[in-house]
């Protein structure tokens, strides 16, 4: 059950925890999805710089999930952004990252984090949200689709790796 995890807002004090958690999740998720030369560039130092930068910039919100033993089990990061969705440029929520440790998968925690993000986005006046996912990350795509997201736009590319975009036109429809 998802209730075995506790959620809290992360701060800059959590940057080291997030960097280590992020790297561990990336290694578990992307070993078979990223070319070896890109996979080799994923380092703790780069992640630490990233998270310190996230907390220095305005508008980033990060939720951290801890398991019953007090270990970091996953996180979600979102912010507001401007995007052309369906031809209209507007301000919506951007899901920048959602990652769980392998031991925490398929226990409802991802859905819980996503619903928390949606509730916070709506509370801050945002009506829609989007994200980008590696095209070949099929488990994550199944998750977003199960949570009501729909693909939009053309295929994108990150360092030569194909990506696709998903979104919820109406955040009230996020979830199951
Ligand atoms: C994607 C992720 C956040 C989903 O979180 P989760 O806690 O495992 O998912 P949930 O338990 O909330 O699943 C909700 C529903 O999504 C769908 N789903 C989730 N994982 C799935 C999978 N691997 N395959 C197919 N459907 C899946 C199911 O319909 C599931 O409901 P069910 O368990 O009742 O069948 C998590 O799997 C994860 O962190 N993966 C590795 C990192 C990653 O790929 N992140 C996304 C990068 S863009």
Q: What would you call the structural class?
A: alpha+beta
- End-to-end C-alpha gap: 16 Å
Main-sheet strand order equals: 1-2-3-4-5-7-6
* CATH class value: Alpha Beta
Query: What's the CATH topology name?
Result: Aminopeptidase
Q: What about the largest sheet?
A: 7 strands, mixed
Beta strands, count: 7
Ligands (ions, cofactors included): coenzyme A
Helix and strand sequence: EHHHEEEHEHEE
Q: Summarize model confidence as the mean pLDDT.
A: 94
Per DSSP, what share of the residues sits in E-state strands of 2 or more residues? 25-35%
Task: Explain what the structure shows.
The chain has about 180 residues and is an alpha+beta fold. It has a 7-stranded mixed β-sheet, sandwiched between helices. It has one domain: Aminopeptidase. The mean pLDDT is about 95. About 25% of the residues are buried. The chain has 5 helices and 7 strands, in the order E-H-H-H-E-E-E-H-E-H-E-E. It binds coenzyme A. Coenzyme A binds near residues 25, 98, 106, 108 and 139.
